[in-house]
Model the fold of this input.
Amino acid sequence: MRCCDVEKLWDDMRDALQPHRDAVIKHLRACPPCQELYEQYEGIAYCLTCLPPPQPPATLVPKIIEHIRSAVKATVPDSVAKIDSPLGLLFVAFRETGITYVALNRDEGDEAAFQRIKARLGRSVVPSTAPAWVNETLTAFFRTHVSRLDRVDISDLTPFEQATLRATAKIPAGEVRSYGWVAAAMGQPNAARAVGGVMARNPVPLLYPCHRVVDSTGRLHNYEYGLDVKARILELEGCRSYKR
Amino acid sequence: MSALAPILGDYRLSAPAMMPQPVRPTKGVPGPENFEVIVDDYQRRLYGFALRMTGNREDAEEIVQDSFVRAYRALAKMDPQQRAELRLQPWLYTITLNVTRNRLRSKRPTNVALDSLADPDALLNETQEGPDQPEAIVDRAADMVLVEQALLQLPMHLRAAATLRFVEGRSHPEIAEILNQPIGTVKSHVHRAVRILRRILGPQVGRIVASENSTIEEED
Done:
């Protein structure tokens, strides 16, 4: 066996199945230059195998899972169902985790409604029929004016937006509160304007009752679907204490 | 007599026992439903690989996160037969290597070799039970930093080959699969990597191995 042939076989010997193993060893024992090169080779290999296995931080697994969760959320579309209600047709978007969007009918056609919801959610939507839990959630709201908030998913929103919507959920049906009241209920009494901003982009109106929030003089102030609709909802809830 | 003579004598280093053991294979066919188990099984290994490749802990963490997201998405798109036929471990290495390449390509290479990786605390913990004197422990940590930095000086394709071969303990056919290269190319890359490392580390290799080797003999 020649020196150049032996050199090519060194690394194979780590796999223990090397058929030329004995021949290589025999050559190395008899050939000091090859022996020296082999020792250096094995020395390097040995240094590399001695590198301590790095310890990943304990936070790595939770970070990976969270990463996957948000990536999946971005790719799995929401379902959108049309549901009849006392306010007319509703477009309700939902996924496994809860209802993500409620849109009142603007008479713009289904396709335009789907496009609007898609743009607001920032991910694709697929038309669907409403499963029982979605139907029940809406039916119960119109019957009792109380929302099953465990069936509403607002986890896409910022912490401030989520806190604002949760504060509105404390307003009893049939009553109204001011933007300042909501801000104070969140422990941020100076945030009334920011509260107004959140109300304007509430993705789940009705279920998170932004319609119960009015200005400090009791006027309806504003509503995504118009003041008539806001008044209508409040009347359905038996509220008379607002001003037009 | 050279420092390596005892090694040559019985080919201790060629013994398969010196190679890192493969991780326990994830039970069942891999898919989104058991992905948390896959993450748990492979995160250490892929993190280690990414860290050896980049020399930077933050990069390694982000690479592993991105790699698992890619793997998840790809698995979700596969049909049951593709999943059943998937060789998970090499596949995960391939994904991690691709993410690493993309990331290193967009970074200045000079950032890489300057970071010191060896965590002296970890090394201390690891060697506490041995008979080493404190100076020896510090020496060993310093030696490991030298080896790590030498590895980071290799061109990326050689670094990948050497890391998979020696640090990760993969076989030639497996590395060929991971790198999508013929086995001959893998062997020649491994060989070239060792030659360059030999040039970088030079005479220090003998000293590192001699000190390691004395520990091994005491264990016998």
Observations:
- Chain B touches chain A through 65 residues (CB under 8 Å).
- The domain at 117-220 of chain B is CATH 1.10.10.10 (Arc Repressor Mutant, subunit A).
